[in-house]
Amino acid sequence: MNQDDSVNSSNLESWFEDVGAPAKVLEYLTSDSFPLSQYKQKASVLDLGTGNGSALFSLRQEGGYTGPLVGIDYSDQGIQLANRLKIHFANDPEDERHIAVRDMTFDVFDLIKESPEKMPWWPKDGTGFDLVLDKGTFDAISLSYDTVPDVHGAQQHLNQVYPAKIAAMIKPNGFFLITSCNWTEDEIVRWFTTTKSIQGVFDVFDKIKYKVFEFGGRKGQGVTSVCFQKRA
């Protein structure tokens, strides 16, 4: 059997789909309230923890984002699937998700240990991406017990260095949209506005609202999405 014979739209199982997050995020990114929706033909997007690339395929086909789209993931298996899907969609116009895949890149990358500026997909102007998406990567990193040394040799947990890593990937006035099921909205805001290494870097631009649940007299969302804008 050909390697791509088993590759089709059924491989595009999506992140946080049980709470409708993919549709909500896509709706927001294509709405008039999001500034980049007016520049979809040029906006550069970096998708962290891209997995099978479903978020970027949706942005391209359904959202009309035709600028450079880059998906990175620590998992080689996920990137292999994303690249097979990319080839499948490019070569099979009968597939319902047939799309132009020009300027779409999927690559294995460790965003904690590696430098994005050295990668061939880094934006040519050198300032970073217009939009960076996190759909559970911060959640996963926050569960890790691994540490890395800071410039003074002190050990830091990965989620402590993550905010600065993300900030460095976004161009001035660019956006960071993070979706989390492990942190509350207030906690996410604190992580990306008060962490010492990036204080004064991000402002909260907007928040996506989801269905509210009530349990034990307390209300909350099963998932939270916060959009930050990097200061110029």
UniProtKB/TrEMBL annotation:
Protein name in UniProt: Protein-lysine N-methyltransferase EFM4
Keyword Nuclease found: no
Superkingdom of source: Eukaryota
Ranges of residues in domain Methyltransferase: 41-192
Gene: EFM4
An example Gene Ontology CC term for this record: cytoplasm
Places the protein is found: Cytoplasm
Record GO biological process: methylation; regulation of translation; vesicle-mediated transport
InterPro entries with a match to the protein in the record: Efm4/METTL10, Methyltranfer_dom, SAM-dependent_MTases_sf
Pfam entry (one): Methyltransf_31
Keyword set, alphabetical order: Cytoplasm, Methyltransferase, S-adenosyl-L-methionine, Transferase, Transport
Role summary: S-adenosyl-L-methionine-dependent protein-lysine N-methyltransferase that mono- and dimethylates elongation factor 1-alpha at 'Lys-316'. May play a role in intracellular transport.
Keyword field contains Transport: yes
Main EC class the enzyme belongs to: transferase
Entry similarity comment: Belongs to the class I-like SAM-binding methyltransferase superfamily. EFM4 family.
Record organism: Cyphellophora europaea (strain CBS 101466) (Phialophora europaea)
EC number: 2.1.1.-
SUPFAM superfamilies found in the cross-reference section: S-adenosyl-L-methionine-dependent methyltransferases
GO molecular function: protein-lysine N-methyltransferase activity
